[in-house]
Structures are given as structure tokens and as C-alpha cells.
Specification:
The chain is α+β, with helices and mostly antiparallel strands and 430 residues long. The chain folds into 2 domains: 2-346, Alpha-Beta Plaits; 366-413, no CATH class. It has 12 helices and 21 strands. The chain has helices at residues 40-49, 75-86, 113-116, 136-139, 186-190, 217-221, 243-246, 263-266, 293-300, 327-334, 338-346, 350-356; strands spanning 2-6, 11-15, 24-31, 62-66, 93-94, 107-108, 121-122, 125-126, 173-177, 196-198, 205-207, 227-230, 235-238, 273-279, 305-306, 317-320, 368-372, 376-383, 389-395, 398-402, 408-413. It has a 4-stranded mixed beta sheet. Strands 17-20-21 form a 3-stranded antiparallel beta sheet, with helices on one face. Strands 1-2 form a two-stranded antiparallel sheet.
């Protein structure tokens, strides 16, 4: 095992391979507060990539209802239980160790799936990555218990496989998931054939189908269970990040080579998604680029957080947490940055509000944004999560998004214009 630095954990950790990073990294932000579980993203991915024989149970994109749902069933509760069993009572964060860009959320003092593998011996002997193989029954239903609000009392360190709710009344939320194209992928670390690799140009994680022998160690090692086995070809498959679109090679969508968003992103009805590429330095760190909307939301404002960062894979999928969910549950899922993220989202300042307007505003990937200041239009009292009333000052600013070549491709105002259709021409006009 080599030692690599994980900025989401705020410390070095062990990993099966030496540290190596791409020039750019594919990343995304999902705003859970907006998701309506229409499953449009799920079916767009299914109809594009996994419609063939042997792929019937493959859902590279899925939307599950938390805390009761999951695909495969109980994927997170099972792995959290395994980690707790290996390192009982020690899977915790030191939020006081927070220190700039190196430790933005503090320091995770527990064990990752790579650390814990040294202490866990499964049925086949020691593992390179702590994980498990889901059963056929667990793969069978991608949206089981959708809209189901059910839970039990929460006990620290105990992860019930039917619920992880601290205490339930009437709430649930939707969690849209694709492959996180992690910086330190569990699937890559677990593969004995070295059939899995990260592309140097964009960090997208792919499987070499010529090298894959279907051992399913990648399925076992991925903590998010986003690698899936195809029985008729005896190989594993996973989300490919719609890489032809990321490369700008679609002749219809990208006539001039402009990178565009993936299928699941571009069809999102609720406008919960923003996707892009972030520049990675020679040292493996994210470039300091506050004008990139992803860098701004993730690194500058920390309003979008990684999913289960304690697993240790440094996922490149980030989420704006839902504001109505008990904090203990959210901190278990997104780490100790939850309070700050929700505080900002509930009453966004002028700049943050402008950037939030860019979600799904344009199919092309946005590499840069600018804001033109406008007049003040309102003062709105906002009740914050702690019960305090805060006044939000609204300005009719204009936010512009620019593509890879610096061309302006979208312009959105905070105060959306109202267009009235002429009654004489349109009979259903009001």
C-alpha cells in the first residue's frame, strides 16, 4: 500500500497504487433540495447505455429515496456497519482540525475502506479494499420504497438496514446517484487484472473490456456499488461519464468541439445538476479557480459536499444537502460541513444566489462565470434553521456562463422576466 493525500479527509491514507492525477477532473454538483424523483435522468441513461441483453438490472444512474431506499438495497448501511465492526466507536471526525484548502472539513480520524481492509479477512481471505458482493435480490429493484417515509430510533454506531433515521416523523429525500469517478477509486484498487483506469485528460474512470475477466472484485470494492456485472459477457460495466460528449465529439451537439453535459445531466427536469471539469495541478491539488462554478460551490463556498467522504475514495460527486433532514443523519452522509452548507443555502448571499441560477441553464459545460450587478429589488425575511430571522437582500443581477473556449453561452437574471402571450392570438391566455 502507498500513502496518498485525501483533501476531503484532511490527512494522508493508504491506497493500493502510487499517487497519480489527471490534467482535468470530471466533477458534478447535485442540489438535493430540488430533486423531484421524476426518474427522467434514470431513463435517459438507461435508453442510451444499458438497454441491451444482460443489462436488465444495470442502472448507472438511479434516484433512491433516503433513508429507506437504495440500489442495491442497503448499500450504504451495510458498508458503514462493516467499517464500524472493524473500528468500533472510532469512525469520527475532528472538525476542530479544519484548516484552509488542505483540511476544509477537518480531519477524519477513523478508517477508510483501504485502511480497514488490512484488518478484515473475508470468506476468500484478505481484501485489498473493504467491501462486499450484493445479492441478486439486492440488485433486483432500483427504486424499492420510493417515497417511503419509514424509520426507527437511531443509535450511534448501529446502522439498521431498513433505516438510518435518527428519529422519524414525516420526511424523506431523494438522492440521485451516478459513478463519482473518484480520485482514488475503490473499484480500481480492488481489480486484480488492472483492467480499470482513470483517463489522464478528464479523470473519468473506465473498464478495459479486453482485460476484464469478470472476477467482480470491482463490484465488491466500489463502496457506492456503481460497478455492475453483466452475466452474458462475463465482464463488469459502469458509468462512462458519456465521454464522447465530454470530449466535444458529438457532431450535432458540439459542432465546434464544445464539451457538453452527460445524458442524465442534460435532461434533468428539476434543474438539480451542474457538471463540469476542474483543473488539476501537477501536485494533484485542485487549481485555485473561483470563477469556475464547480470550484466556487465546492472549494470556495463549501456549499456542496462529497457523498460519504469517510469511505476514502475522494469522490468527485458533490451534493447540496437537504435543509429539512436531521443533522445527525446528514453529517453521517456528507461529513461535518453540513451545518455551514445548509446555513448558506437557506439564505444565499448575492454572489451565491447568482451562481445557483446556472444549474441546468445551458447544455454546454460551463468553465467560467461572471456577474453583472443590478438594482436591489426586494428584502425578504428568511427563517433560518436555528429559528433566527435573517433578511435576504435581493438584487436583479445577471450571471453569465462561458464555455471551454471563453464564449458566453448563457445569460440569466435573478428576477426572471414574465412574458404575456397576446390574447387575440392564443385563446388560452389569461
Amino acid at each position: 500500500m502507498a500513502m496518498v493525500y485525501n483533501w476531503q479527509l484532511g490527512r494522508p491514507m493508504s491506497y493500493p497504487y502510487e499517487e497519480k492525477h489527471p490534467q482535468w477532473q470530471f466533477a458534478f454538483v447535485f442540489n438535493i433540495n430540488r430533486c423531484i424523483a421524476c426518474q427522467t435522468c434514470t431513463m435517459a441513461c438507461k435508453s442510451t447505455w444499458t438497454f441491451a441483453k444482460g443489462q436488465e438490472s444495470m442502472w448507472w444512474n438511479n434516484v433512491e429515496t433516503k433513508p429507506f431506499g437504495g440500489y442495491p438495497r442497503n448499500w450504504d448501511a451495510k458498508l458503514l456497519s462493516m467499517l464500524e465492526g472493524v473500528n468500533p466507536g472510532q469512525q469520527s471526525w475532528d472538525a476542530a482540525a479544519k484548516n484552509g484548502r488542505e483540511k476544509p472539513y477537518g480531519e477524519f480520524t477513523g478508517m477508510t475502506i483501504f485502511d480497514a481492509a488490512k484488518k478484515y479477512v473475508g470468506p476468500e481471505g484478505p481484501q485489498a479494499v473493504l467491501g462486499y458482493q450484493p445479492t441478486e435480490a439486492e440488485w433486483r429493484t432500483p427504486n424499492l420504497h420510493e417515497d417511503a417515509a419509514q424509520g426507527m430510533k437511531y443509535q450511534p454506531g448501529a446502522f439498521d438496514q431498513t433505516s438510518q433515521l435518527p428519529e422519524h416523523r414525516v420526511w424523506f429525500f431523494y438522492l440521485a446517484r451516478i459513478c463519482n469517478h473518484c480520485t482514488y477509486p475503490g473499484c480500481l484498487g480492488a481489480c486484480p487484472r488492472q483492467a480499470i483506469y482513470k483517463r489522464p485528460e478528464d479523470g473519468i474512470v473506465l473498464i478495459d473490456q479486453e482485460r476484464c475477466r469478470g472476477y467482480r472484485k470491482c463490484v465488491e470494492g466500489c463502496p457506492y456499488k456503481k460497478v455492475m456485472f453483466r452475466p452474458n459477457t462475463r465482464t463488469s460495466e459502469k458509468c462512462v461519464g458519456c465521454y464522447p460528449r465530454i470530449e466535444g465529439k458529438d457532431p450535432e451537439l458540439s459542432p465546434n468541439g464544445e464539451p457538453v453535459e452527460t445524458r442524465c445531466m442534460s435532461v434533468c427536469v428539476g434543474k438539480i445538476r451542474m457538471q463540469g471539469l476542474v483543473k488539476i495541478g501537477d501536485d494533484g491539488k485542485w487549481a485555485n479557480d473561483p470563477e469556475n462554478p464547480l470550484c466556487y460551490l465546492i472549494r470556495e463556498r463549501q456549499v456542496a459536499l462529497p457523498l460519504y467522504p469517510q469511505f476514502g475514495t475522494e469522490p468527485n460527486g458533490f451534493y447540496i444537502p437537504p435543509r429539512w433532514v436531521p443533522r445527525g443523519y446528514l453529517q453521517q452522509m456528507f461529513g461535518p460541513g453540513v451545518d455551514r452548507a445548509i446555513e448558506q443555502y437557506c439564505c444565499p448571499d448575492r454572489e451565491l444566489l447568482a451562481v445557483l441560477q446556472l444549474f441546468r441553464a445551458q447544455r454546454q459545460i460551463l468553465f467560467k462565470f461572471k456577474i453583472e450587478k443590478g438594482p436591489k429589488v426586494a428584502e425578504v425575511p428568511i427563517k433560518m434553521p436555528n429559528g433566527q430571522i435573517k433578511v435576504q437582500h435581493l438584487y436583479n443581477d445577471t450571471v453569465m456562463g462561458f464555455n471551454k473556449f471563453g464564449k458566453e453561452v448563457v445569460r440569466v437574471t435573478i428576477d426572471e422576466p414574465i412574458h404575456k402571450r397576446p390574447f387575440a392570438k392564443h385563446a388560452n391566455s389569461i
